């Protein structure tokens, strides 16, 4: 209990550690004033030979990888994210100009290690993005980048997801500069948003209404999460966290896919959590209205200044205004809190959910 620092669970402690862990992840690596990026082992030019990037990962780390490939791909460098367990059995072609990035908190996940070994055997260059110095992934890959989130005890990954996404944004910016040959147009805006991130997360922790929202929708049949673009992975992550610790049925969908099938599941007993970033909001708002028309309660996770969304939603979990590519990290913190409180109200064993392990070392 001493290790929980006064919190009821490690998960809650780790959620609250995020302002500190994010500062550690960022320390010395980016200067918003000049736009400079300084990644210890990756000076400018490190990735000049690379022509495409593939991320391999599992679970929460897979969702971070999806955010990473969206970030890089939208800035002109071909990038894809694969579930490591699938990559290990049906890998796409690679060559010496392919960078395969294993995203793994523990650095010990068997599926991710298999995928990285397969990539290496195919001649790709490999890089581990991990929290654990000396882990198998860090040792076996050609290079390693450490996310510096500090130890994470709760089986549900929280602070490491945030630090993974920040690390992949910085790595992504380095890659884009080396390969595309110029800074992203919005580099300084992204770096400023990252610099503000620890304070923004603190603001969410201080003012969240997630416990009230969790209580209000406690007896629902299922919980759905939707997002578009950079926050489609946040919808997936919100649902994974929710099912993992509350044992309630939850699913994440690309907002635009609802009408292609999942809408049949939507009823007044299926609250829908819609994530907004300030980009593509109009389309996601129209998806939100589609589920409302079927009687589902809608909880928007959105900027505190977006009055139109606030007006249509039944409840709002607000996030500070920031760059759209950083907003997902903030929205995810609200969803971490939502899952935590839903599970706590159901008296679940939050730090050790049934059937799950912190590190999965079998394929
Ligand atoms: C996250 O809450 C899960 N416990 C799980 O999905 C985890 O992210 C996955 O097993 C990958 O672990 P890794 O990051 O250590 O490779």
From TrEMBL:
Catalytic reaction equation(s): D-fructose 6-phosphate + L-glutamine = D-glucosamine 6-phosphate + L-glutamate
Domain named SIS: residues: 43-182, 213-353
Protein purpose: Catalyzes the first step in hexosamine metabolism, converting fructose-6P into glucosamine-6P using glutamine as a nitrogen source.
Subcellular location: Cytoplasm
Transmembrane segments: none
Tagged with keyword Calcium: no
Active-site residues annotated for this sequence: 358
Enzyme class: transferase
Molecular function terms from GO: carbohydrate derivative binding; glutamine-fructose-6-phosphate transaminase (isomerizing) activity
Any one of the GO BP annotations: UDP-N-acetylglucosamine metabolic process
Domain of life, per lineage: Archaea
Main location: cytoplasm
Protein name listed in UniProt: Glutamine--fructose-6-phosphate aminotransferase [isomerizing]
The enzyme's E.C. designation: 2.6.1.16
Keywords: Aminotransferase, Cytoplasm, Glutamine amidotransferase, Repeat, Transferase
Subunit text: Homodimer.
One cellular component (GO) term of this entry: cytoplasm
